[in-house]
Design a protein that fits this description.
The protein is of the alpha+beta class. The chain has a single domain, classed as Spore Coat Polysaccharide Biosynthesis Protein SpsA, Chain A. About 35% of the residues lie in helices and about 20% in strands. It is built from 3 helices and 4 strands, in the order H-E-E-E-H-E-H. Strands 1, 2, 3 and 4 form a 4-stranded mixed β-sheet that branches. The protein is globular, with a radius of gyration of 15 Å. The chain starts with a helix and ends with a helix.
Length: about 90
């Protein structure tokens, strides 16, 4: 997925490139071009880069693997991910 974002950015030089997973759900791995860095540096608190999406054109790349939606923040999440992978 990261390689796909990089390839798209290299070809089109978009300001923001993000995967769009099943049913039009955005995912947090986003590529921000350097033109966005000033705005990203202005963000304060617990705000993600999505806060600047309205300031730039966002290129969404369709991604057809819902595994990308898994959020692994702790040991239980990691164990759940391992179980999913082992049951494939």
């Amino acid at each position: 997925m990261i390689r796909t974002l990089l390839e798209s950015h290299t070809q089109k030089m978009q300001s923001i490139v993000a995967p769009l997973v099943l049913e039009n759900r955005r995912f947090s791995s986003v590529l921000f071009d350097r033109v966005t860095f000033h705005n990203l540096l202005q963000l304060e608190g617990d705000i993600g880069g999505r806060a600047i999406f309205s300031k730039y054109k966002v290129e969404y790349i369709p991604w057809h693997d819902d595994m990308l939606l898994l959020d692994v923040d702790n040991t239980e999440d990691y164990k759940r991910l391992i179980d999913i992978e082992n049951n494939k």
